[in-house]
Amino acid sequence: MLRRLLPTLLALGCGFLALTWGLVSLQRLFAQETEDARQQLRSRREEVERIATEALRLKLRQQLEWSLPAINLAVEDPLVQADGLYLLFREYQFLPRLPRPRPGTQTPAKKLHEELRQALEAPPAPGPWQERLGLLRAVEAVLPKDVLDTPEAAERRLEALLRYRAEHPLPPAQEIPYTLLVVERLARGDASPWPVRGLIHGGLAEEFGGMAQGLGLQRELLRDCQRFTQADFDYLTERILAVSAELSEPSEAFRSRVQELGTGAIVLPSQMPEPTLIGARWYLEQQGEVVRGIAVEPAELLKGITLEMRKRKLLGAEDSVRMGRVDALQPVSSLKLDAVIPRGAAEEAQISKRYGLKTLLVLICGALAVAIVALAGLAQHRKYRFLELKSDFVATVSHELRTPLASIRLLAETLEMRAGGSPEVRDYPTRIIQAADGLHFLVENILSFNRIDKGRWVAQFTRVRLEELMGALRTDLASATRVPVELTEDVGDVELWADPGLLRLLLSNLGRNACNYNQSNPVKLSVRVHATPGHGCTVLFGDNGIGIPESEWENVFQDFYRVTQPGPEVHGSGLGLALCRRIMHLHGGNLRVATSGPQGTTFALTFPEPPPP
Ligand code: ADP
């Protein structure tokens, strides 16, 4: 059974392997396709992140460049706002401004200011102040209280005061209270002389101490704040604001700078070879001994970059960029922005979903293939099992028919002998014998066919003279048919390497067919041999029967195949020629129709060269 199933199983196995290979390749293709799609998404995101990061670096550089004039101005002028600006030169931080008043409650400057005011009222003043207070008194004496034009005398005396002040500078702790007193005494509201205004805010011309001393009280106090205690500083600030208001001099910037004082130092590494972000707030660039920088608002910058990229269609309406992990000291070159692309996440999910679906389909196909192979295997097994049972059954029945057939024949022969020439029974016994022989022949055919088909026939090869087989054929035909048969043979002394029993059966089949499918009288048979030395021989078996249509020449060798022919009906099983061809195959040869027509049919039996004796 397994032998019969083997070709089917092999075909199924090969088919299954091919299908598995196909499915595995398909799955690999899907995996590759998915990876490619993911890679494409990743590349797109990386490209967006690269562009965004580059834009951020550029913006930082640009913002610092634009802030350079502001930085220079803030260093020169203490009144200029320095918020968000950074400058370090030779390890001293100029911006944001570090100086702040000393802590403490002592008020030496306030005391000096009050003493000088009293001394102004009630001279004489202590030594060094004699001259300065004298000059102030002189100006005050000629400066009217409510006249808009300053008299020339007052101008000259004021000039002398300022010149003296420029030529005899005092330390800021004394100069600032004195100057404050001068301004307070000479202030006349809108009618104040211009140098008095300069002493508060605008500064003076160079000859009166401009640049060096004459920057104006507001700037001087800011510049020298660390020389005062907090209490003195607050006192002076309050008074400067008061006179500024009285003279309508701008004081907003001064008030703001006072509040900003001593914002704090920024600790930098000793070397900063490349632009760096400090604490994600300060962007600094070092050039030799100078470090310049600005405070940045990353959230604002990122917002701007996001908008720009949306405009350039690099980001969708819902996409944005954000800062990745930023260290306390982050070199800008290694800064990286992350792209937030919700659409990308959705696409990635879609890709995974598609891949899952395809994998599922492949798995289903695989499962179907397994199921189909299993079902086909089962169906084949059942089919062969059924055929096996059928052929076993036929074999058993045929086998069991042999014994009763033999008995029938024996009894018919006995009856023939006893009945002698009795007219009542006529030729009945002979006909019984012929019928039994026919049945016996059929049983032999079936049994032999079955055994050869199942490979159970063990052929007994021997050298057989063809002439001897012709004799056996003659005897068989004489008993099997009532029509006269003329057998002409031209076989010489040809010897075949064959199983004699099987060859007898074969020739009987051919001979009986020649008689059955024949309407001539007598039936003429001819057997000839063509021997080609070294290539075996061909036996040509001819008759004068009704012939076989050419389209059926091959079909007649199929199992149980019969040709419907005109003329009287001939009974048969359709097994004879199929058995004959199997017998020839068993001998290593073949059987075919050589010629056929209304004059008769010739079968060609080819035998291989017999082995050397
Ligand atoms: P069966 O004779 O039992 O029908 P065979 O296998 O011997 O089965 O023959 C198959 C068919 O071939 C026959 O039905 C017959 O039509 C045709 N056939 C066989 N031998 C001859 C012959 N010598 N002449 C004409 N027809 C033949």
Automatic annotation (TrEMBL):
GO terms, molecular function: phosphorelay sensor kinase activity
Protein's recorded name: histidine kinase
Residue spans crossing the bilayer: 360-379
UniProt KW keywords: Coiled coil, Kinase, Membrane, Phosphoprotein, Transferase, Transmembrane, Transmembrane helix, Two-component regulatory system
Record flagged with keyword Secreted: no
Annotated ranges, domain Histidine kinase: 396-611
Coiled coil (residue ranges): 31-58
Claim: Metal-binding is one of the keywords in the record: no
Source organism superkingdom: Bacteria
Catalysis performed (reactions): ATP + protein L-histidine = ADP + protein N-phospho-L-histidine
Organism: Hyalangium minutum
EC number(s) on file: 2.7.13.3
PROSITE patterns, sorted: HIS_KIN
A UniProt-annotated Pfam family: HATPase_c
InterPro entries: HATPase_C_sf, HATPase_dom, His_kinase_dom, HisK_dim/P_dom, HisK_dim/P_sf, Sensor_HK_Regulatory, Sig_transdc_His_kin-like_C
